[in-house]
Write a structure and sequence with these properties.
The protein has two domains: about 200 residues, Preprotein translocase SecY subunit (Orthogonal Bundle); about 230 residues, Orthogonal Bundle (Preprotein translocase SecY subunit), CATH 1.10.3370. The strands form three sheets. Strands 4-1-5 form a three-stranded antiparallel sheet. It has a two-stranded antiparallel ribbon with strand order 2-3. By secondary structure, it is mostly helical. About 70% of the residues lie in helices and about 5% in strands.
C-alpha cells in the first residue's frame, strides 16, 4: 500500500491532478471560515449550540454537516453545496415525468451539457431563495432568544446576504467543476466529503475528553475503546461490501453480418447494484423526520413541540419511522432512476438478450423482478446503518458526534467517494503500468 502511495507522485500527470485537487479543497476549507458581513458570529454560534442539544437533531445539523460547519458560523460558504444537490435531485426527478427533459438526457454529450447548465441555473435560483429567507430569519431577535444577530437589519443587509451566500455557493460549484476537469475524482463529492471529514477533529477531541475526564459514567474504559475500534472496522467493511455489491445479469449478443464483417457474438453482463439509490434515501428521510424538530426550535407552538418531542433519537417511534422512510425512498428513487423498459429496448435494438428470457417485455419484467428483490436487502442495510449511531450513542454513552462516524449519511458518503476516487487513481496507475511494458516501440517479450 505504501509503495502505491509512493508511485502516485512518480507519475507527473497524476501528481499534478492530485496537487490541484488538494489545493482547491484547501481553498474551500479556507472559505468556510470567512464570515458573512453584518453578522455577530459569537451569538449565532451560541444559538446553534443551544438548538443542537435537541435530542432529535434539526435540519440545521444536517446542513451543517454538508457545509463542514459553515452554517453554524454563517460564513460565505454557509449554504455549502446543498443547493446544487437539491437542484440535481429535483432535475433528476423531473426528468422521469417531463418528456422534454427525458429526451434531452438521451441526446448524448450535448444533452448532458444542457442538463448540467439547467442544474447550474437551478442551483443559483435555490441559493437566492434560501439566502433571502435566511436573511429574514436572522433579522428577528425573537427567534434567537432575544439575541441581536444582525447588527444593521434592513434591505441593505438582505441584499448583501443574498449576494454573499449565492456567490459563495456558485464559487463552490465552480470549484467542484474545476476539480472534475483538472483534478482527480468527482469534485462535488470530494467537497462534500471534505466538509464531513472536517468534523473528525472535534469528534476526536470529545472522545479524548471522555477518556481523560474522571467521574462515574463519564470515562470510557480501554475495553470500550477496543470494542469501538472493532465496530468501526466492521461497519466500514460492511458499507464497502454493500456499496460494491451487485447482481450480474448475463447478456448474450447475437452475431450479425454487415458486409464482410461479423459483429456481436460476445457475452457480457448488466451490473444491478444492491444499493442503487446510494445515500439519497437517508437524505430524504432525514429531511422529513427532522423538519418538526427544526420548526419547533423556531416557532413557539405547543402542538409542534409535542410532535418534536415524540420524534427524538431516544424515542422508538423516531427510529421505526426513520427506518421505514429509508426503505420507502430506496424503492422510490430506484424506480425513478432504473428503467428496465429502456434497458430491454436497447438490448433488443443491438441484438442482445438474457439467456432463457425472451427479448422485449419479458426481459423488462425479469429485470424489474430482480431489481425489486435485491433492493430489499440494500434498503434494510441502509436503515440499519442510519439508526446505528443512535444505538451506539445510547449503548456506549458517547456523544452523538462521535457515534455518527459509525454509520449514517457521513460514513456512506465518505466510503462511496473514497472508493470512486481510488478507482480513478487506479486507472491512472494501470495505464502507466501498461506503458511500462513498452520498450523502443516493441512489446516486451515479443520476438
Amino acid at each position: 500500500m505504501f509503495e502505491v502511495f509512493a508511485n502516485l507522485f512518480k507519475i507527473p500527470d497524476l501528481k499534478r491532478k492530485i496537487l490541484i485537487t488538494l489545493g482547491l479543497l484547501a481553498v474551500y476549507r479556507v472559505g468556510a471560515f470567512i464570515p458573512t458581513p453584518g453578522i455577530d458570529g459569537a451569538k449565532l454560534s451560541q444559538f446553534f449550540a443551544n438548538i443542537a442539544q435537541t435530542q432529535g437533531g434539526t435540519l440545521f445539523g444536517m446542513i451543517n454537516m454538508f457545509s463542514g460547519g459553515a452554517i453554524q458560523r454563517l460564513t460565505i460558504f454557509a449554504l455549502g453545496i446543498m443547493p446544487y444537490i437539491s437542484a440535481s435531485i429535483i432535475l433528476q426527478l423531473l426528468t422521469a415525468v417531463i418528456p422534454v427533459l427525458e429526451r434531452l438526457s438521451k441526446e448524448g454529450e450535448e444533452g448532458r451539457k444542457k442538463m448540467i447548465q439547467y442544474t447550474r441555473y437551478g442551483t443559483i435560483i435555490l441559493a437566492i431563495i434560501q439566502s433571502f429567507f435566511i436573511a429574514l430569519w436572522l433579522e428577528n431577535p425573537a427567534r434567537f432568544q432575544g439575541m441581536q444577530i444582525v447588527q444593521f437589519p434592513g434591505w441593505s443587509f438582505r441584499i448583501l446576504a443574498v449576494v454573499t451566500l449565492t456567490c459563495g455557493t456558485a464559487f463552490i460549484m465552480w470549484l467542484g467543476e474545476q476539480i472534475q476537469e483538472y483534478g482527480i475524482g468527482n469534485g462535488i463529492s470530494l467537497i462534500i466529503s471534505a466538509g464531513i471529514i472536517s468534523r473528525i477533529p472535534a469528534a476526536i477531541a470529545q472522545l479524548v475528553q471522555l477518556v481523560t475526564v474522571s467521574g462515574e459514567g463519564a470515562q470510557l474504559d480501554p475495553f470500550t475503546l477496543v470494542l469501538m475500534a472493532f465496530m468501526l472496522v466492521g461497519v466500514i467493511v460492511a458499507v464497502v461490501a454493500i456499496t460494491q455489491g451487485q447482481r450480474k445479469i448475463p447478456i448474450q449478443y447475437a452475431k450479425r453480418i454487415v458486409g464482410r464483417k461479423i459483429y456481436g457474438g460476445q457475452s457480457t453482463y448488466i451490473p444491478l447494484r444492491v444499493n442503487q439509490a446510494g445515500v439519497i434515501p437517508i437524505i430524504f428521510a432525514q429531511s422529513i423526520i427532522l423538519f418538526p424538530a427544526t420548526i419547533a426550535g423556531l416557532v413557539p407552538s405547543q402542538a409542534i413541540q409535542n410532535i418534536a418531542t415524540m420524534l427524538t433519537r431516544e424515542n422508538v417511534v423516531y427510529n421505526l419511522l426513520y427506518a421505514g422512510l429509508i426503505i420507502f425512498f430506496c424503492y422510490f428513487y430506484t424506480a425513478i432512476t432504473f428503467n428496465p423498459i429502456d434497458i430491454s429496448n436497447n438490448m433488443k435494438r443491438f441484438g442482445g438478450f438474457v439467456p432463457g428470457i425472451r427479448p422485449g417485455k419479458q426481459t423488462a419484467e425479469y429485470l424489474d423482478y430482480i431489481m425489486t428483490r435485491i433492493t430489499l436487502p440494500g434498503a434494510i442495510f441502509l436503515a440499519i446503518i442510519a439508526v446505528l449511531p443512535t444505538l451506539i450513542s445510547r449503548g456506549l454513552k458517547i456523544p452523538y458526534l462521535v457515534a455518527s462516524f459509525f454509520g449514517g449519511t457521513g460514513l456512506l458518503i465518505i466510503v462511496g467517494v473514497m472508493l470512486d476516487t481510488m478507482r480513478v487513481i487506479e486507472s491512472h496507475l494501470l495505464v502507466r503500468h501498461y506503458e511500462g511494458f513498452m520498450k523502443k516501440g516493441r512489446i516486451k517479450g515479443r520476438r
